[in-house]
Amino acid sequence: MTRSLNKAIIIGNLGRDPEMRYTASGKAITTFSVATSRTWVTSDGERREATEWFNVVAWNNLAEICNQLLRKGSRVYVEGHLQTRTWEDEKGCRHYRTELVANEMLILDSRQPRESQETMDEDDEEGPDLPF
Q: CB of 74 within 8 A of CB of 107?
């Protein structure tokens, strides 16, 4: 049997805050969208830019980490595999959705988690405690 590969790596910014929920069996699942942009110069010398949006799904412990640490605008590296789901709506129309199922996530910006950011903002008003 020949081997195959389904691996996707993206670097971009979250378009919305992550949304976390739990399955009936208690597994955590977090979804969020990531925008990636590319630029190029046309043969006429005109600079163009295109943005591509990716739907990302994280499960279990990674889902909880993403929900806790990420927020709209966060710059992230996400690695995983592409998966397409199919379903029919009430009218019998078939729908398709391709998602990046994450198995790795790295935060690339220096932003703090939502809870820590609120605490740091309060502490910043008084100034930092310096040891000297």
A: yes
For the chain, how many structural domains are there in total? 1
25 belongs to a structural domain: yes
Burial class of residue 14, CB neighbours in 10 A (0-12, 13-18, 19+):
buried
Q: Where are the alpha helices (DSSP H) in the chain?
A: 60-69, 114-126
Q: What is the rounded CA–CA span in Å between residue 81 and residue 45?
A: 36
pTM score, two decimals? 0.76
pLDDT in tens, the chain (132 residues): 789 999 999 999 999 999 999 999 999 999 999 999 999 999 999 999 999 999 999 999 999 999 999 999 999 999 999 999 999 999 999 999 999 999 999 999 875 555 544 444 444 444 444 454
CATH number of the CATH domain containing 86: 2.40.50.140
3-state secondary structure of 66: helix
